[in-house]
Amino acid sequence: MKAIVIHEFGDASKLSYEDAPLPEPKAGELRVKVAAVGVNFADIYARRGWYPSPTPFVPGNEFAGTVDKVGAGVTDFKPGDRVATGSGSAAYAEFAIAPAMRTSALAEAVSFELGAALLEQGLTAHYLATSTWPLKPGDTALVHAAAGGVCQLLVQMAKQRGARVIATVSTEAKAQIAREMGADEVILYSTQDFEVETKRLTGGRGVDVVYDSVGKDTFEKSLNCLRPRGLMALFGQSSGRVEPMDPQILNRKGSLFLTRPTLAHHVQTREEYLGRANDLFNWVAAGRLKVRVDKTYPLAQTGAAQTYMEERRTLGKVLLVP
Hints:
By secondary structure, this protein is α/β, with parallel strands linked by helices. It contains 9 helices and 15 strands. Helix content is 30%, strand content 26%. The strands form 3 sheets. Strands 3, 4, 5, 6, 7, 14 and 15 form a 7-stranded mixed beta sheet that branches. Strands 10-9-8-11-12-13 form a 6-stranded parallel beta sheet, with helices on both faces. Helix 2 crosses helix 3 and helix 2 packs across helix 8. The longest helix is centred in the middle third of the chain and has 21 residues. The radius of gyration is 20 Å and the shape is globular.
């Protein structure tokens, strides 16, 4: 099969399109003929070596396709089933492995593209809105990079839960998308100081929670946007890794809370996974959650797809098609 293989860490030139051996499913796993792959910043972090993996390796966790072979002990799926997962492995390939306990069946009415676009980012937005800080009416959330894949979904979920959303974006085109998703206020951080604007929009109080996937460029000012005992949820680092900090800073800024969550810890059982995933598919079917696919690239052009994301030009989900 063809796959994208990383032999050494670095920039997008380190993504090699080449022949690779067909993976074999172990107990509890499925081998899936991949129809669409979701591109995520976690894949870029892995390529850079920020999420270290032994080389060589095939990146990617999110994909949809048709079950080709099942491993021992798998009873919920059979060859030919249409499925999607956000917790697979070696997704940038024509065939990939999915854990049965974190895989969803796709109804015929749900396209492979939607399946690949929804799960990893949708599940991330779900746990952020319902578990990391369970949003409720009266809460105010600051959402950075609100036109990105995760945060478009997060803005919608926050509004479903009755929260006020202040969004930050870099361009007017992205501001329009954030508004379409339901953001109450939009700050163009390229021309406005988001800390000053957030304080103004909250009457000096600050927000209850900051959802930050940007990292280095926004972290310090984001802490300043929080009200006393507010929470910073740092769930990405698209601008770079945050430098180590003295926890005493959280005291001085108002007894703040800081967390660095990740998806794997929020889908630890089949029941938890299905509860979150079923919410997503039900909301999409009911028209309560919109998923915007921005661009689709052939697998051989993975470098261009990741560069497009790294340059922060995305207006929604980016997909690869083997």
